[in-house]
Design a protein that fits this description.
Layout: H1 11-22, H2 26-35, H3 37-49, H4 51-56, E1 57-63, H5 64-67, E2 77-84, E3 93-96, E4 102-106, H6 109-113, E5 129-130, E6 133-134, H7 136-153, E7 157-161, E8 164-168, E9 171-175, E10 178-187, E11 190-205, E12 223-227, E13 239-242, H8 244-250, H9 257-270, H10 278-291, H11 301-318, E14 322-323, E15 326-330, H12 337-360, H13 378-384, H14 389-409, H15 423-462, H16 468-544, H17 555-575
Parallel strand pairs: 2-11
Antiparallel strand pairs: 1-2, 3-4, 4-13, 5-6, 7-8, 9-10, 10-11, 11-12, 12-13, 14-15
Helix pairs in contact: 1-9, 3-7, 9-10, 9-11, 10-11, 11-12, 15-16, 16-17
């Protein structure tokens, strides 16, 4: 079989998962796009309130998964970059730091102050520096204070969506490099809660493109950003580079790439691999755009999905996802080996199972890797994405054949092989032996009958005439024999299921007996401890007896003591 067609049986299922369970509902997208207009109002109020912000502000950039069409699930989180532009008179420059992926932003404030027409516009800029370097911590604090003061005076805002007025209560909090604007409100009797991460970024152009260790910009986008995210809390003069515009262009114009990224992100979310950021997955695709044959991206979604799922597994298994723009920076370097091994093992299990699914045509078995049981109804899904009659017949034959092959290749023989070294367990298991032997005979008989049916079918096909009327007769006989074969195979596995039930019952009985034996052993141990105590007491009494008989001793006393000693020894002999 052509390897590119091997996974075609998954195509409709994966398309349906993407369409119904990953893509955001149209009505929510429309509503949220209107609600996001609140950000424009907040920014406008910030510009009116603060001259420095007004002169630094350049525009908004709609970034993140939602605007890259890579969002998984309901759109309740958005990323917006608040693009700021430093004055040219301050001679802003980029210095590559010792940490790959991070840079320093330096300003020459003395040069700015010489420009008397420019300097007044940027009063307060110097307070955002540490020495001559722009400070991430000071920038975020300044932005937070400005935004909080605006929202304090505007605690409620109104937005009209489809002739319905929504009353919003915006709040702000710090979240990593971003300031998160939380919008809470009600629309069509449904409460909503939306988080908008507004990240203050400074823009730079090609002439400032970092050189040391960084790849060249081969796209038509000549603007890049620096983001106030630091490698550690004390390195506040470090800014993370962001090449969002370039990355967006690189992954565009590939029909199956974005749906594939969404499917892999859905698997990540389904299995709570929270340490793998969306950007890490996108980075793998950026690398494989270079490494793989360009023709791959014109193949079917199912084929590209399996290829890239395997690539994802390989990157995690190696514990290294290099930063696309500077390979010296390993994005998952801080993850423990236990974490990466656990994720890689899970991905390997998924890949192995997908291979089996494609052989046995059990296509719906892939759903639980994307969805929790409460998220979908399997019968409804089968109606939405049905298999053809040909696929159903192939699935039945493939499943039965593979199960039979598995059982026979493993030398599966049911017998009373499970015993314990306890008389009660032996007597219990012996009563099951004859039943197991009967079941084993039935299974061997059923398997032999099925094998002969396969041989008959093969023989009929070999002897099939070439004339059309006779060929129809042979096909009719073949269909009848296939139906008989499927019926016989179903009986075979009914016998097998009965055997498994009896084995489970026997195992439960053996466990009960083992528990009883454990209890008995516990009692024996306790009794031995008591005997040891009595022996110790007896030894002390013997030590207290006179070493020799004194004339003054009463003979009857000695006789009584010797009788007591004799009875004690007899007791110990009987119980040891």
């Amino acid at each position: 079989m052509d390897n590119t067609k091997k996974y075609n049986v998954l195509e409709n299922v994966l398309q349906k998962v993407n369409q119904k369970y990953i893509a955001a509902p149209d009505d929510e997208i429309k509503r949220n796009n209107r609600l996001l207009e609140v950000v424009d109002r907040i920014i406008q109020m910030m510009r009116s309130k603060n001259t420095l912000f007004d002169n630094l502000f350049q525009s908004k950039f709609y970034g993140g998964s939602y605007y890259d069409n890579l969002k998984v699930g309901n759109p309740s989180e958005y990323d917006l970059d608040c693009l700021l532009s430093l004055p040219k008179a301050a001679e802003p420059t980029i210095e590559v730091s010792d940490v790959p992926g991070y840079v320093h932003v330096t300003l020459n404030m003395a040069a700015l102050y010489k420009k008397k027409d420019e300097a007044p516009k940027y009063l307060g800029l110097e307070s955002l520096l540490d020495g001559n370097r722009l400070c991430t911590k000071k920038i975020k604090s300044w932005m937070e204070g400005l935004m909080s003061s605006v929202l304090t005076k505007n605690s409620k805002m109104k937005v009209t969506v489809d002739d319905t007025t929504c009353v919003l209560k915006p709040k702000v909090r710090k979240s990593g490099p971003a300031l998160t604007i939380k919008l809470q409100g009600c629309y069509k009797d449904k409460d909503f809660d939306i988080d908008i991460d507004l990240v203050p970024c400074f823009t730079f152009f090609d002439e400032h493109w970092p050189k040391k260790g960084y790849r060249e910009n081969k796209t038509q986008k000549n603007t890049f950003f620096v983001v106030p995210k630091t490698p550690s809390d004390d390195q506040t003069d470090c800014w993370r580079l962001s090449f969002q515009e370039q990355e967006r262009q690189l992954i565009s114009n590939y029909a199956v790439m974005k749906p594939t990224i969404r499917l892999i992100k859905k698997i990540r979310d389904r299995h709570d691999h929270t340490k793998i950021a969306s950007y890490f997955i996108k980075t793998i695709f950026l690398w494989e755009l270079e490494n793989l044959d360009p023709s791959l991206w014109s193949k079917s979604l199912s084929f590209v999905f399996v290829v890239m799922l395997k690539k994802y597994m390989e990157y995690v298994e190696k514990g290294n996802i290099p930063y696309y723009w500077n390979a010296e920076n390993n994005l998952i370097e801080k993850l423990s080996s236990a974490t990466t091994s656990g994720i890689a093992n899970k991905l390997k299990n998924i890949v192995d199972h997908i291979e089996k699914i494609c052989i046995n045509l059990e296509v719906y078995g892939i759903l639980h890797y994307f969805l929790k049981s409460e998220e979908y109804d399997i019968e409804t899904f089968k109606k939405d994405v049905p298999l053809s009659k040909k696929q159903l017949r192939q699935a039945d034959v493939a499943r039965i054949s593979s199960q039979q092959t598995l059982l026979l290749s493993d030398g599966f023989v049911l017998s009373a092989c499970q015993t314990v070294s306890v008389d009660a367990a032996l007597s219990s298991s012996s009563s099951s032996s004859s039943s197991f032997e009967e079941i084993n005979k039935d299974m061997v008989k059923a398997s032999t009958t099925s094998s002969s049916s396969f041989e008959d079918i093969t023989k009929d096909m070999a002897e099939a005439p070439t004339t059309t009327p006779d060929l129809h007769q042979v096909l009719s006989r073949l269909e009848a024999k296939i139906d008989t074969l499927i019926s016989e195979q179903k009986r075979f596995f009914q016998v097998f299921e009965t055997a498994v039930e009896r084995i489970n019952s026997c195992e439960a009985r053996i466990k009960e007996i083992a528990d009883t034996v454990d209890n008995s052993i516990g009692k024996v141990v306790t009794a031995n401890e008591e005997l040891r105590m009595k022996i110790g007491l007896l030894e002390r009494k013997i030590d207290e007896l006179p070493k020799k008989v004194e004339p003054s001793m009463d003979p009857m006393f000695l006789l009584d003591e010797s009788d007591k000693l004799g009875r004690t020894v007899e007791f110990l002999q009987n119980h040891t």
